[in-house]
């Protein structure tokens, strides 16, 4: 399995993603182990999956509503948000909604993503990233710090610059 | 005007470094065209017909003379010696080299400028009234809130990949000079009965293929909630705006599909989470920004300057210019001046490096070293002593910047069109020029009076043809360039969309078509009636009859 960037470091990944191909049947039997299932499969087989007593993850497609997981946020070890095309920015709002609802587990962005998206992704609450295959992950980590300062508040820094500036009591 | 502190400098410097590295990786083949495109667009860089085109942000149209000199320097060093001011108060260069763009951005950063989010599916340059801070009908100087919006929207992490571009305009006066009814979000700064500052929020206006006047979603939003409310609007749009069809992806289509009521309900529900969050603005922040927009050191002057009055009596040409290009000011003895970039024979909105340097000098000598870009693609000196108007006029004339046509037919708003823009259906600049040539009699032009003529080279409407009293749209018919004409559009408080008068015309017919529209108006107008008033009173029919009546138009 390809490595991922997690908490600012390149780490091996133990999760198996299920149902990424076309025509996945949400009711079909699921493999054992640490799996990440599509929202539809989670909704169809929730009880059975919870009964396994294993770490379970759910992945959301761009159109999936984060609200559907509201009651389960404490039960999921991973929520992964798919970006089939990096120009489809719905996943950024999905991340904000999940974090705002109190989700504290791993929030992973995966799909058509490169290092140039890392900074924004990390700001909206993602803490893990599975990038395009040819990305040099070790090099990409530097892009988590493309900017030293930001104006607006977001998930990883809720206080906008004007609040922090006021606390600092200076305009530097 | 707003000056950067170390935070602003650091953020822009990081952007220059980031884009330099992205360009390097692209040229080294590490980024594909598809991967690089949105990155360069968010830095204002298009690949056009001739060469790349770089659009530089002029936040809410404000420039210092130092910045304008840098724009001139860039035109000379990296381009062909000129730039084009746009209908969104920005400037574009048509001939930069991709490899040199990081250097251009570094030069811009040295004078507190950038090209951030001047294109791409993100929040674009915030626009406002070009007479902000000096207009007599102003209640609130919109530039403070505009700068707050600029900072908030710059690199907003959640809204960099929206379904489509997103434009916000702000106005703080009786007359809406910022076309707020035709933006994705339009904000009117207002005061309620207790004198508190707030915003009327309008969402879902826009031009393009489906022109729509925006809907008021909130009559009075306390100003401290400006950012939380805008975030709510954008979050609803980012999640639910259409992404399957380019032509249906603007927020106006979402508002229309949901209905303004349901859309508003969703926004208000989302806003519940933002209210009271750290993003609520503070008085301290407002005051910090407002310090940058204090009044310059105006002199105590009489309302009427004797020298100015004398010059008016002496020179008819000067008087004509003051009638069109000089505007009322809040302070006695001062006026605002429009330097026209609409001289016949030159592409509307274009300025040479020499002209930019020259205008920078004028700003230094006559207007506290600052100027503005108007959405009608002219330059404005906002704070000129009336006593200096005659001297300023003589100087401006020497550089072809004193065409007395502001508000008149030849002050044509015109996009770059087929000469430069790869999206164009038809050329627009030669049409503007042909019309300007047909109406070269200044007395006649003044007699025709106020008239907005706007030209776009395609449905994207960069030339704002929908809101021109006369609007011209380039259309493609089997590979040939044709022009569709509409009348009755208007901007400002009475914003209205024009009505197409009938089948389109070939380029060569256009001056004659405009002439017939004007003849109709001159024949049937009442005293004091402007062209647009006549159209509103009589409708399209008499104009249509005149244009198509005598000779069948060549239908395409
Ligand atoms: S209106 Fe069309 S032709 Fe004109 S600049 Fe915009 S996209 Fe280009």
Short description:
The complex is a heterodimer of chains A (172) and B (556). Chain A is an alpha/beta fold and 172 residues long.
Provide keyphrases for this structure:
heterodimer, A: 172 residues, alpha/beta, TIM Barrel, eight-stranded mixed sheet, 24% helix, 19% strand, B: 556 residues, Sulfite Reductase Hemoprotein, domain 2, 4 domains, five-stranded antiparallel sheet, binds iron/sulfur cluster
Walk me through this protein's architecture.
The complex is a heterodimer of chains A (172) and B (556). By secondary structure, chain A is α/β, with parallel strands linked by helices. Chain A starts with a strand and ends with a helix. Chain A has a single domain, classed as Alpha-Beta Barrel (TIM Barrel), CATH 3.20.20. Chain A has an 8-stranded mixed sheet with strand order 2-1-8-7-6-5-4-3. Chain A has 5 helices and 8 strands; from the N terminus they run E-E-E-E-H-E-E-H-E-H-E-H-H. The radius of gyration of chain A is 17 Å and the shape is globular. Chain A has helices at residues 39-51, 90-100, 118-123, 137-140, 161-168, and strands at residues 4-6, 9-11, 16-17, 35-38, 56-60, 78-83, 106-111, 128-130. Chain B is an alpha+beta fold. Chain B folds into 4 domains: 6-109, Sulfite Reductase Hemoprotein, domain 2, CATH 3.90.480; 127-291, Sulfite Reductase Hemoprotein, domain 1 (2-Layer Sandwich), CATH 3.30.413; 306-398, Alpha-Beta Complex (Sulfite Reductase Hemoprotein, domain 2); 413-549, Sulfite Reductase Hemoprotein, domain 1, CATH 3.30.413.10. Helix content of chain B is 37%, strand content 17%. Chain B has helices spanning 6-27, 33-41, 65-78, 101-110, 143-153, 226-240, 251-258, 260-274, 283-290, 306-314, 316-325, 353-366, 389-398, 429-438, 442-448, 510-524, 531-538, 541-549; strands at residues 45-47, 52-56, 62-64, 82-85, 91-93, 127-128, 168-171, 185-191, 197-203, 215-222, 326-327, 334-339, 350-352, 370-373, 379-385, 413-414, 453-456, 470-477, 480-487, 499-500, 505-506. In chain B, strands 16, 17, 18, 19, 20 and 21 form a 6-stranded mixed sheet that branches. In chain B, helix 3 (65-78) packs antiparallel against helix 12 (353-366). Chain B is globular and about 60 Å long. Chains A and B meet through helix 2, helix 3 and helix 5 of A and helix 1, helix 2, helix 5, helix 6 and helix 9 of B. The complex binds iron/sulfur cluster. Iron/sulfur cluster is lined by residues 415-417, 421, 423-424, 456-458, 460-463 of chain B.
């Amino acid at each position: 399995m390809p490595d991922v960037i997690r908490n600012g470091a390149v780490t091996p990944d133990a999760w198996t993603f299920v149902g990424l191909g076309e025509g996945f049947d949400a009711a079909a039997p699921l493999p054992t182990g640490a799996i990440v299932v599509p929202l539809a499969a989670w909704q169809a087989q929730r009880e059975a999956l919870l009964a396994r007593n294993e770490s379970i993850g759910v992945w959301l497609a761009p159109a999936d509503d984060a609200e559907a997981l509201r009651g389960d946020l404490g039960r999921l070890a991973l929520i992964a948000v798919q970006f089939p095309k990096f120009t489809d920015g719905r996943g950024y709002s999905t991340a904000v909604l999940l974090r705002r609802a109190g989700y504290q587990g791993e929030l992973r962005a995966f799909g058509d993503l490169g290092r140039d998206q890392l900074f924004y992704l990390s700001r909206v609450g993602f803490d893990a990233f599975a990038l395009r295959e040819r990305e040099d992950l070790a090099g990409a980590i530097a892009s988590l710090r493309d900017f030293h300062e930001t104006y607006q508040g977001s998930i990883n820094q809720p206080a906008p610059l004007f609040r922090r500036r006021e606390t600092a009591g200076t305009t530097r | 005007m707003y000056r950067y502190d170390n935070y602003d400098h650091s953020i822009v410097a990081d952007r220059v470094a980031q884009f330099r590295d992205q360009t390097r990786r692209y040229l080294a083949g590490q980024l594909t065209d598809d991967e690089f495109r949105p990155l360069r667009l968010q830095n204002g860089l298009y690949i056009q017909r001739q060469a790349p085109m770089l659009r530089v942000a002029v936040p809410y149209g404000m420039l210092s003379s130092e910045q304008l000199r840098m724009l001139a320097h860039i035109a000379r060093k990296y381009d062909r010696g000129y730039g084009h001011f746009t209908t969104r108060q920005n400037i574009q260069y048509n001939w930069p080299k991709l490899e040199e763009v990081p250097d251009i951005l570094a030069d811009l950063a040295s004078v507190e400028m950038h090209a951030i989010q001047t294109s791409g599916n993100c929040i674009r340059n915030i626009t406002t009234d070009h007479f902000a801070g000096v207009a007599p009908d102003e209640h609130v100087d919109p530039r403070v809130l505009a700068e707050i919006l600029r900072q908030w929207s710059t690199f907003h992490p959640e809204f960099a990949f929206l379904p489509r571009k997103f434009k916000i305009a702000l106005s703080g006066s009786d007359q809406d000079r910022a076309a707020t009814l035709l933006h994705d979000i339009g904000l009117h700064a207002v005061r309620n009965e207790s004198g508190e500052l707030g915003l009327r929020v309008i969402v879902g206006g826009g031009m393009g293929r489906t022109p729509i006047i925006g809907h008021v979603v909130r009559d009075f939003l306390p100003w401290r909630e400006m950012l939380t409310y805008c975030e709510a609007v954008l979050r609803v749009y980012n999640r639910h705006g259409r992404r399957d069809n380019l032509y249906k992806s603007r927020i106006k289509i979402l508002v229309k599909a949901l209905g303004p009521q349901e859309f508003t309900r969703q926004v208000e529900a989302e806003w519940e989470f933002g209210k009271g969050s750290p993003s609520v603005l503070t008085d301290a922040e407002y005051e910090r920004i407002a310090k940058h927009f204090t009044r310059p050191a105006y002199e105590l002057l009489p309302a009427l300057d004797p020298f100015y009055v004398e010059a008016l009596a002496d020179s008819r040409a000067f008087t004509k210019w003051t009638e069109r290009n000089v505007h009322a000011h809040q302070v006695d003895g001062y006026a605002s001046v429009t330097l026209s970039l609409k001289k016949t024979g030159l592409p509307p909105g274009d300025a040479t490096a020499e002209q930019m340097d020259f205008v920078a000098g004028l700003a230094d000598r006559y207007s506290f070293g600052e100027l503005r870009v108007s959405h009608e693609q002219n330059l404005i000196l906002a704070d000129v002593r009336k006593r200096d108007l005659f001297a300023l006029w003589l100087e401006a004339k020497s550089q072809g910047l004193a065409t007395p046509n502001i508000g008149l037919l030849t002050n044509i708003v015109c996009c770059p069109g087929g000469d430069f823009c790869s999206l164009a259906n038809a050329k627009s600049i030669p049409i503007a020029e042909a019309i300007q040539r047909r109406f070269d009699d200044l007395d006649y032009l003044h007699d025709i009076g106020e008239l907005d003529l706007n030209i776009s080279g395609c449905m994207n409407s960069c030339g704002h043809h929908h809101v021109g009293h006369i609007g011209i749209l380039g259309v493609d018919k089997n590979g040939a360039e044709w022009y569709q004409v509409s009348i009755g559009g208007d901007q400002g408080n009475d914003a209205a969309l024009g009505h197409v008068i009938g089948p389109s015309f070939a380029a060569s017919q256009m001056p004659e078509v405009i002439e017939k529209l004007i003849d109709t108006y001159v024949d049937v107008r009442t005293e004091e009636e402007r062209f647009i008033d006549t159209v509103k009173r009589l409708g399209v029919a008499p104009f249509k009859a005149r244009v198509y009546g005598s000779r069948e138009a060549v239908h395409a």
